[in-house]
Design goal:
single chain, alpha+beta, four-stranded antiparallel sheet, 42% helix, 20% strand, globular
C-alpha cells in the first residue's frame, strides 16, 4: 500500500451495523432489520467503491475500514475531499435528489460496506426523525467544510494551503496542555497534496520549512506540531 494507514484485521463475514454511528440509538432488533435490507460487499484496499457520474442511488455505510471520497481534475490529478472512517456513511446526496454521483469513492484499507436502497433509506428517515436530524447535521458540517475549502483555494497560495491543512489535522488530532498536537499516522505527502490541490514536492518543501523553524518534528509514525497556536497565527496572518 502507498497510504499511511496500516490495514487492520477485517472480519471474514459482514460485521453488521452495530458500529455504524447513525444507528447507535436504534434498538438492536430494528437495526438487524435494517441490516437485512442491505447488500454487503468486501472491498480490497485501493479498490474503487463508487464511480463519479454513475446512476446508482444507494447509501453506503462503512461497517469496517476506511474509504476516501475523491474527484479528478481535467488534467487527471486526484483531489481528496474526505476520508470516511468506520461507522460513517456516504452517498446520501444521490438518495435525496436523484442526480448522478458527484464524486468517486476509493477503499483506503480493506473495507466491509453495506448498501441500503434509496427508498429504504428515505423511509427510515421518515420513520425515525432523530436519524433525519443526524443526517441534516452531517450535511451542514459538509457544507461548512466545503466553504472553508473554497476560501482556502481562492485566497491561499499552495504553500499556505499546506500549512492550513497541517493545522486542520493538528486540531483534529487534539491539542494537549502544552499546546502540542501529535498527528498519527504520519501524513503522507501525496495525501496532503491531494487534499489541497498541489504537488508532493510543494508539501515536502513546506514541511521541511516548518521543521527548520522548529514548529514540527517527524517521528517514526507521527508528525508532532510543537506549537499549534503559533501555526494558527501563521495561517491567520496569511489569510488576513
Amino acid at each position: 500500500m502507498t497510504r499511511s494507514q496500516r490495514t487492520p484485521e477485517i472480519a471474514a463475514r459482514p460485521p453488521g451495523l452495530a458500529g455504524v454511528h447513525l444507528f447507535a440509538d436504534v434498538p438492536e432488533e430494528a437495526r438487524a432489520r435494517i441490516a437485512r435490507q442491505c447488500g454487503w460487499r468486501r472491498y480490497a484496499a485501493q479498490e474503487q467503491i463508487l464511480d463519479r457520474d454513475c446512476e446508482s442511488r444507494e447509501v453506503y455505510f462503512v461497517a469496517q475500514g476506511t474509504a476516501r471520497i475523491i474527484i479528478y481534475t481535467v488534467s487527471g490529478r486526484e483531489v481528496a475531499l474526505a476520508d470516511v472512517e468506520t461507522g460513517s456513511f456516504f452517498g446520501e446526496l444521490a438518495a435525496f435528489d436523484g442526480a448522478p454521483r458527484s464524486a468517486s469513492v476509493l477503499a483506503v484499507t480493506d473495507c466491509w460496506i453495506a448498501t441500503l436502497p434509496a427508498t429504504a433509506f428515505l423511509t427510515l428517515l421518515a420513520d425515525h426523525p432523530p436519524l433525519a436530524l443526524i443526517v441534516m447535521r452531517r450535511l451542514s458540517a459538509t457544507i461548512r467544510a466545503a466553504t472553508e475549502r473554497i476560501v482556502d483555494l481562492s485566497t491561499l497560495g499552495a504553500n499556505n494551503r499546506v500549512q492550513a491543512e497541517v493545522l486542520r489535522q493538528a486540531e483534529a488530532a487534539g491539542v494537549d496542555d502544552a499546546g502540542r498536537a501529535v498527528i498519527r499516522p504520519i501524513p503522507i505527502h501525496a495525501d496532503i497534496a491531494s487534499r489541497v490541490s498541489t504537488t508532493r514536492e510543494t508539501v515536502a518543501r513546506v514541511l521541511n520549512d516548518l521543521a527548520r523553524k522548529g514548529m514540527v518534528t517527524r517521528e517514526r509514525d507521527a508528525l508532532v506540531v510543537h506549537d499549534v497556536a503559533r501555526l494558527e497565527m501563521l495561517v491567520q496572518e496569511l489569510t488576513a
